[in-house]
Amino acid sequence: MGLKASQSSGRRPFIYAGALLLLMMTPVHAGEAQPERAKDLRYGWALYEYHQGNAFEALTQLAVARERGGIEGHGDHPALVEGGLMLSWGMTREASRLFTQLLGADGTGSNLSPDVRNQAWFYLGKVFYLEGNQALARENLNRVDGEILAEADHDLFREWIYLRSRLVMMSARPDDEPELASLREQLDETDIWSLYLRYNSAVSALDAADGAAAEEALKKLISILDESIDSVEPDAEREGLLGRARLSLAGLYLRDNQFEAALEVLGAMPLTGVFADQALFDYAVAAAGQGRPERALDALDTLANRELFLPWRQQVPFARAYVLEQMNAPQRALPAFKKAADHYEARIRELDNIRDRLNEESLMAQLEFSRDSDGILTDSYGRLRVQPLDSGMAEVLASETFQQALAELNELYRMQSFIAERQSRFESFRIMLETREQQRQIRIAETRRALETQQADQWQQLHEDFTDRVSSALADEDAGFFMTSQQKALRDKLAEVEKTLADLPDDATTARQRATYRRMRAYFDWWIADDYGINRWAAQKQLMQLDREMQSFQAQRQRVESLMADDARHAELARRIAASERELATLGTEVSEALGSARQTLLAQVDRMLAAQQQELNGYLLASRHAQARLADQLFRASQNAGAGDE
Question: 358 and 433: one domain?
Fold first, then answer.
């Protein structure tokens, strides 16, 4: 894919989610001011989780907010942030679908400003480029409006030109040459992106077996870098590219046996640069090929004294002994080959022990992770910041597949920790449910005692008796039953008068009094008969009110009984907790399985790397043993010939 995909910023965000969050500085509409603070608490919570480095929690908050009606006051920006977080978790397909749905296939389906849409397409295309998906990378990068991007962020515009140029170079179609030339014209000759394009052009020429074009491109690149690097304040990146270009040019010369040219290029490289060790070895090869074994031996001795001993340097002991043999110094070469063989045997045994004891714990013990209070730090591409304690691990650690598997393992452990934390809370939920049930039983007992003091059954019986009496009086048209309290009082007085008159002797006075009583009684009977309808309606009205009150009373009592018999809310809460616990347990099982798979992937990669090292070392060991035997026989024959000459 080329030497460079992007410049590492050394920041901590998850891949490009951080860059997408910076897009929040752009107005929602062309003339609308961007809010300075989150208008929706749920959005603020999600952003807080993101800035704490908790991408999973931030995604969770956004998902919860979406299920609860969405986020108010921020337009499409929450969806843009969610897409960035998806990218940070490697969910490129999901992020692509979200961006396409959000922005529209032509990029005009959203009220986001054009420069925000531009940068969204750019970052999505860049992720697909890093994944090696050229078709999707080209599709998304071609959606970017170059003029708008150049005005909004010229640095991104330069990188955009580089990525598009690399895609054109990788397509290797002849009709793409004019497009590539047009793209390269938009970058200054000394621009770092233009320099990387030159280097990758040389690599492409080498792949096409066009050594002359590769040599010309590398020479031009070295010339530009020599002139553009500031000697007072040198640029480490440009110096690194210069070293790489010189090393590649020297390798090209070595391939063609142009040893003098290779020595000239390698001699200009510093002994403290990034590629100094490789340059020393190539210098030794060139010097040996030119017939200067002393210079080759000096370079190999310098390299052998280095503290770091990467796997590719395992050839140095054999090469040093070989150079001594080429110098026609068999007495020095023989112990050198023996020393090399002993070294290879020891290293092979060491690798055998490492492979036998290889497990996750021993592997992680060889890695040193950069951490802070929030956990392991990551770079701007989402890779873990890790250094090998054993230099032999550097090769496998530098591979993209190992880095991805390591990052996946870390995220799975975070998810497992998150699940364990949530599972621990279920015990608290169960205690809460038990406490609530105990409190409920206490309230039920208190309620039953209160119901007993109300004598509900007795009142119900009285109500039924009264209803029966009213119904019977209505059927019999019993006017006396419906008398008012005043009428009943008058009836009682008339009854007393009648009783009194019955006890008096019969005389004229009593006769007059009895006649008066009969008139009063007749009037009373007429009054009762006349008020019967009114009194009956008043009684029926009161009965209806009493019925309603009794029905309400009975309904409330039944509701209380129902609540005491079955607590639906409690049961629903218990059901939801049990269902969540089952789902979490299922998720925990899936995460555990994924963890096992991730572990096996990591260990398999390391084991393959160790096996490859062993195979290479076995070759050097065999060659060293053969050289020992050859030199020992040569020295023995020489000693025998010398002895015969003395005789």
Answer: yes
- Report whether 587 contacts 423 (CB < 8 A): no
Q: Which two tokens stand for residue 326?
A: 């080429």
Report d(CA 481, CA 493) in Å as an integer.
Answer: 17
pLDDT band at 162; cut points 50, 70, 90: very high
Backbone φ and ψ of 603, nearest 5°: -65, -35
- Domains identified in the chain, total number: 2
466 compared with 382, residue with greater pLDDT: 466
- DSSP states of 451-516 as a string? HHHTTHHHHHHHHHHHHHHHHHHHHHT-GGGG--HHHHHHHHHHHHHHHHHHHS--SHHHHHHHHH
26: tokens are 């752009």
Q: What is the pLDDT of residues 551-595, one digit of tens each?
A: 777 777 777 777 666 667 777 778 888 888 888 888 888 888 888
Asked if residue 391 has pLDDT above 80, the reply is: no
Residue 233 has φ and ψ, to the nearest 5°, of -125, 80
Return the number of other C-beta atoms located less than 10 Å from residue 568's C-beta.
9
Decide if 592 contacts 416 (C-beta within 8 A). yes
* 444 lies in the same domain as 461: no
The reply to whether 357 and 427 lie within a common domain is yes
Residue 393: exposed, middle, or buried by beta-carbon count in 10 A (0-12, 13-18, 19+)? buried
Helix (H) or strand (E) holding 386: strand 386-388
Question: Residue 385: inside a domain, yes or no?
Answer: yes
> 461 and 490, same structural domain?
yes
CA atoms within 13 A on the CB side of 11: 12
Per DSSP bridges, beta strands 386-388 and 371-372 are unpaired
Domain that residue 517 falls in: 455-565
Name residues whose C-beta falls within 8 Å of residue 610's C-beta, 6 or more positions apart in sequence.
Answer: 351, 354, 355, 358
Q: Could you give the maximum distance between any two Cα atoms of the chain, in Å?
A: 198
Residue at 148 is within a domain: no
